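YM 10:42: Tryptophanyl-tRNA synthetase sequence, as discussed on the call
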Amino acid sequence: MGAVKGMLALQEDSAYETYYMVADLHALTTPYDKEKFAEETRSVIKDYLAAGLDPEKSVLFVQSQVPEHVELAYYFSTVTTLAKMTHLPTYKEKVKQLR
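YM 10:58: structure's back
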């Protein structure tokens, strides 16, 4: 919840219009229990609200509820080659972990 501190500060600054996403589609890249998936997504939302995120000041949304996220990911996947990916340190690390 370390990131929440910064989120709370930004929502109080009128210079910013803040949007926060619960990245549930990102969670699908690791093993998960499909019976608990929706419950865990709601739990993250409850944690954000309990920490002080105010829906009157910030937009909080669930990634899977915005179809444009998947569409944009598709477009990126069509222009991101494996050769480009192999130059990214985070990609290299993930490949090492999965071997």
